[in-house]
Specification:
Layout: H1 2-7, H2 14-23, H3 28-36, H4 41-53, E1 62-64, E2 67-69, H5 75-85
Antiparallel strand pairs: 1-2
């Protein structure tokens, strides 16, 4: 689902979310009920607050040790950072 959301930024209304759930073979009845009842809202808010405290300003954001990568996260950027963190 997260891949579908990133691919379709801006298309996250109830209609589109239900369509994504159907396309992905999720239990759509359960999905709609949990969305309607805000079952996961507390966890989402807590994770968002933790991200803000860590300086996350966009998604996706990658942390390699204490270095934050958020706007340029291709292999050419991340691989050297991973190698440096690994001591190589």
């Amino acid at each position: 689902m997260h891949d579908r959301l990133f691919e379709n930024k801006g298309a996250s209304d109830e209609f589109h979310l239900s369509r994504y759930a159907t396309d992905l073979g999720l239990n759509v009845v359960r999905f709609r009920r949990e969305m309607r009842e805000h079952v996961h809202l507390k966890k989402i808010r807590a994770r968002r607050e933790a991200a803000v405290r860590r300086g996350v300003t966009s998604a996706p954001t990658f942390f390699i040790n204490t270095e934050r990568h958020h706007s340029s996260f291709g292999l050419s950027t991340l691989l050297p950072a991973v190698q440096a963190a690994a001591g190589g």
